[in-house]
Amino acid sequence: MERALRRAVAHRMRFLRTAEKQRVCDLIEDRRTLLSLNCDELSKLAGRPLRVTRFNPGELLNEAEQDVAICERMGIRLVCTDDESYPPLLRETYAPPYLLFVRDGKQTTALGSLKAAAIVGTRGPDARAEAAARELAAGLVRQGVPVVSGLAVGIDAAAHRGALDAAWDADGGETVPTIAVLGNGIDEIYPRGHKRLAGRILRAGGLLVSEYPPGIPPARYTFPERNRIIAGLCSWTVIVQAPFRSGALITADHALDEGREVLVHGHGFRGERGAGTRALAGEGAPVVLSARHVLEEEGRPCSEEFSEFHEPCGGVAGSVSTGSAGSSNAGAGTRSAGTPRISGARMRAPRSGQATASAVGRRLERRKERGLFDE
Q: What pLDDT score was predicted for residue 8?
């Protein structure tokens, strides 16, 4: 069996962990070996009991053959954890996807060489936060920092569009402006209304990435899993606007668990839509208003002057009010004396389907108590 097919078969075994899938891939050198596998042998290979109610290697082989055929027809790359082109930041996370399906309009991008920033938030932002996300993404791309998001409506789409606003002409450079991480099979675009946006991303040299093989529909569990990849690909994550219960807070939670920086945008604090953003800021997340602030937080110089989103935030530098749902008192790019820099220690906890601002806040408080922040 060719390597791509063996990898596709192992990846379809969703009950296995990443390292276990690699062992299966190394074992199944031919079809006969695969078809002879049973649950007991897989449990021995994994070194733990597997709770598998149904295992049919013949069906897995057929599905994997279809996966490979579709990927070859659509020009989709299969990038495995042991490939040089696999993103190193993602590889070092607690649960990296064994296989990434990558759609690349130029077919030349080295995914592992990118240092990117995630911009995420609510699907129902106010106009101010949506404009801020777009401007922030454009500023980062102008500084050579690709923007990663989830192709969802709202803040995600605004971030992708802002990155495309600032991208080089499709024929004029090698910049990767933006990466969209999908919560469904790589062969389909969800939501369907974003097919045109996905096409623009590919034409501009951006990427569509998913851990899900062709034909896997979006589901309640796929989006939290998708969010761990968004956080895992990036050195830092910016939450532009998020309500108290939000998928964007799951992304923040994943980023903190992996020791990555979490920041919040000062223009995403208003109303109930910004309750989660305000809570994170109140826990010590650096507040930013522009790409310059993000880069300063990372200690990276700006190569040139660029426009910033100057609409006043309505507050005092270094302070955040978390009491009133309508308030937005935040300072940009600064922290008050004694406020810890939020940079999570790796905590290998199981992921839930939904996060709340209080849950993320409690995680931050535990880090403070244990001295796990950089001052």
A: 98
